[in-house]
Amino acid sequence: MGLIQEDSNNREIGLTKEGLALIRKEAKSNVVLTSKYSLLSFLPLNLYEQFKKVANIYFLLISFLQTIPSISDSGGRPTMLAPLIFVVLVAMIKDAFEDYKRHAEDAKENNATAMRFEGNSFKQCRWADIQVGDFV
Q1: CB-count exposure of residue 61 (10 Å: 0-12, 13-18, 19+)
Q2: Contact 66, 79 (CB under 8 A)
Q3: 51-63 mean pLDDT
Q4: Share of residues in the chain with pLDDT > 70 (%)
Q5: Least confident of 4-8, 25-29, 115-119
Q6: Nearest to 33 by CA among 128, 136, 133
Q7: Is residue 120 part of a domain?
Q8: Strands 113-118 and 11-15
Q9: Domain assignment of residue 2, yes or no
Q10: How many domains does the chain have?
Q11: Range of the domain at 43
């Protein structure tokens, strides 16, 4: 794959095109991705995150218990459900806004430009397109 030559002051690594292609295939991309959700994954993942909180599970359980008329003092109406839904919706809106900002920052970072050496000159490229072995 490569050739390593060392002397007391220098270390030189020669890499063939095939070796570089193999390394690039196994290396991670340069794309920045800090967001948690996609459009499809937002609702299930965020509901999972909301109900990992003990307080939300408690109020959901109380709401279910309130639907049993024989043990409920609310006549079988889940009166705790409305406040729970309000709290969860507000938290979901906040999470959606924060994740939208993350997506925007990721796009800004990935679309920033750099100068990459190609052939015998430097050419402009996106940061997301930089690969292992490129001279930047």
Answers
A1: exposed
A2: yes
A3: 96
A4: 91
A5: 4-8
A6: 128
A7: yes
A8: unpaired
A9: no
A10: 1
A11: 31-129
Whether residue 46 is contained in a domain is answered as: yes
User: Could you give the CA distance from residue 3 to residue 14 in angstroms, rounded to a whole number?
Assistant: 5
Structure tokens at 18: 């095939």
- The C-alpha atoms of residue 40 and residue 51 are separated, in whole angstroms, by 19
Least Cα distance to 64 among 95, 124, 56 occurs for 56
Tokens 């070796």 correspond to what residue? 19
Distance CA 128, CA 119 (A): 20
Q: pLDDT tens digit string along 74-132?
A: 888 999 999 999 999 999 999 999 999 999 999 999 999 999 988 889 999 999 999 88
Mean pLDDT of 41-67: 96
Give the per-residue pLDDT at 113: 93
Nearest to residue 116, comparing CAs of 99, 97, 131, 98? 131
Residue 135 within any structural domain of the chain: no
> Which residues have CB under 8 Å from 6's CB, separation 6+?
12
Contacts of 48 (CB under 8 A, 6+ apart): none
Residue 2, token pair as written in the block:
């490569």
